[in-house]
Amino acid sequence: MPAGTRVYGYLPPSSHVVLTPERVRPEGFVDASPHRAGLPSAYNSYVRVDGDPAFAGGHDDEQMLLRPLFMTSYLLADFLSSSGLLAAAVVVSSASSKTASALAFLLARGLPGAPAGSPNGDQRDGEIVGLTSAASERFTRELGVYDRLLTYDQLDSLPEGRASYVDIAGNPSVRETVHRHYGDRLSHSAVVGATHHDTLAQAPAGGSLPGPQPTLFFAPDHMSKRTQEWGREELERRVAQAWGSYVEWTSRWLQVHHGRGPDAVREAYLQLLDGRIDPARAHVLSL
Ligand SMILES: NC(=O)c1ccc[n+]([C@@H]2O[C@H](COP(=O)([O-])OP(=O)(O)OC[C@H]3O[C@@H](n4cnc5c(N)ncnc54)[C@H](OP(=O)(O)O)[C@@H]3O)[C@@H](O)[C@H]2O)c1
């Protein structure tokens, strides 16, 4: 690869990085460094920006900020759709998070890039129900992608009927309330994230949960499955098409702030730790 080639992937905030390129293709390569061998392949994959359909429209900031989360949301939407779970409600916790709102965006608009008549091209029938904190409620409502939005103290208003649960908060008490509300009417319970990390030590009361047991959804696993079934190019084509409409939407509400130098990085990090960052604000930082 010629000097100056730009690649996209996980890179350390550092003056340089030593990689061991393997499986070099025109589109990119895989880092085969021994200390990274145990990581899922998505974490060791580097793609050339100039050959990537998702980069065709630019949006470098959004690529850095949102792309891995968007990929997760796309794969989740694809998983829910291809598992027949969109016939009923989809309840999503931490609805204000980027992963949740991108999922709701994709479900609300249908998965672009999917051939009409395929499972992924079909429209959903159930509501998208977001669960969020009182502090994030206004921001989340204004996103306009949830059919119904409840705060964590309004879970007694969860809709009736069948549902599946996409758990991005990882909050044991919210999970238990959702499982107890739906019981056997819950078709699937996907464990995606743990944004409420301060609650993780709580064990659910009363032993095992009613309904299906929560199952880890790990995006790189579903990506490998789709890469085998569709081929990498087809997966990239579909994601790039969905990405285009997603970044057009985020540009209406996401404010990107650029910072440079250790003080800017430290300040943004401390704000994040304290929960002082406005969910509509994003930082692109450089040391
Ligand atoms: N399984 C996978 O393959 C996979 C892939 C990618 C990401 N993930 C996981 O998905 C989760 C979401 O990631 P994300 O980057 O989308 O999250 P994010 O946009 O940073 O959102 C974080 C959310 O955390 C909640 N929160 C709790 N305490 C907070 C505080 N003090 N300040 C601000 N927010 C607080 C808020 O949700 P509410 O107020 O709405 O609860 C907020 O929207 C993470 O746990 C991540 O590790 C999993």
Please describe what this structure looks like:
There is one protein chain. The chain has 287 residues and is of the alpha/beta class. The protein folds into 3 domains: 1-51, no CATH class; 62-220, Rossmann fold (3-Layer(aba) Sandwich), CATH 3.40.50.720; 255-287, no CATH class. The protein is built from 7 helices and 12 strands. The protein has helices at residues 60-82, 98-109, 137-143, 172-182, 219-230, 232-250, 262-273, and strands at 7-8, 21-25, 28-31, 45-48, 89-92, 128-132, 148-151, 163-167, 186-191, 215-216, 255-260, 281-286. The chain has a 6-stranded parallel sheet, sandwiched between helices. Strand 5, helix 2 and strand 6 (128-132) form a beta-alpha-beta unit. Helix 1 packs across helix 5 (219-230), helix 1 (60-82) packs across helix 6 and helix 5 (219-230) crosses helix 6. NADP nicotinamide-adenine-dinucleotide phosphate is lined by residues 69, 72, 94-99, 132-133, 136, 168-169, 192-196, 217-219, 275, 279.
